[in-house]
Amino acid sequence: MFTNFKKNLGQNFLRDKYYLNKIVDCSSFNIHSNLLEIGPGDGALTEYLNNKSKSLTLVEIDNDLIRILSKKFELSKNLILKHKDFLKLNLSEVKKENLFIFGNLPYNASSQIILKILESDIVYSECIFLIQKELALRFAPEYKKSTKLSMQTKLLANIEILFDVPNTAFEPMPEVTSSVIKITKDKKYIDNSIDYLKFKKILQVCFSHPRKKILFPLKKIFSTVPSFSFSLDKRPEELIINDYLEILNKYGKKI
Ligand code: SAM
Q: Whose CA is nearest to atom 6 of ligand 1?
């Protein structure tokens, strides 16, 4: 069993069989699905996925783990191992139908990995990721609070937190609790008229002072703040996606 953990690669391996099973069971893939696992480590989750599917691609950055994985699994055209940094991977390499993506993601690259997938044009059926709970709550906040990340990703997908995983389930043990999230593509809020980059810039300004009333950042965006359907006394976290789309819409029309 691998023990030479590299902190800079976020190597906290999930060892608890109960949660490994639970992660596989919460997904709706079947034997005909194409599976992709990001950061398979020494292959704990991989074993479960491999037993239940005919097509699995693994993307791992660490040379030592590549050696372990190549010995542990019989590689074939149905079980492909890529020695790559997922952040540099050309996603056309994994463009497949009926694609399900899994990963106990490295904590230092989780949000970049998730955004890379969401902002790409790959058609995935579902992503099941294990990430730090604090980040999960930024993607899918409780009590209807908005965050910059939740508003940004709302245009691209539906993200829900399925369950928490305690730190004792990992080796080495991280300091914090993790959560399993499920991502499904959902573009009901976006159409061709929406400029995603402009939307991100607006969110950047609006959430730069989260404690101030929304009027404050709006004054930076508009020379004369127009009227809106929401109260300008609200804080950025109290606005919902339609409010931010209203800001974008009015910003788009400004001279
Ligand atoms: N899946 C294993 C498990 O659950 O036991 C390991 C999960 S560990 C949290 C994260 C894994 O991602 C490690 O194997 C690490 O080497 C790998 N990794 C880190 N950064 C990566 C990147 N940019 N691209 C691909 N793999 C990466």
A: 41
Asked if 246 and 152 sit in the same domain, the reply is no
pTM over the 0.85 mark: yes
Residue 188 confidence class, pLDDT cut points 50, 70, 90? confident
Q: What is the DSSP letter of 106?
A: -
Looking at the CA of residue 87, tell me the nearest atom of ligand 1: 23
Query: Residue 232 is part of a domain; what is its CATH number?
Result: 1.10.8.100
Verify that 62 and 37 share a domain, yes or no: yes
Element (H, E) at 45: helix 44-52
Q: According to the model, what pLDDT value does residue 181 have?
A: 98
Report if residue 205 sits inside a domain: yes
Q: In which band, very low, low, confident or very high, does the pLDDT at 253 lie, cut at 50, 70 and 90?
A: low
Cβ contacts of residue 176 below 8 Å, gap of 6+?
Answer: 132, 133, 134, 167
Residue to mutate, 6, 14, 61, ligand 1, most ligand atoms under 8 Å from C-beta: 61
What is the residue range of 105's domain? 7-185
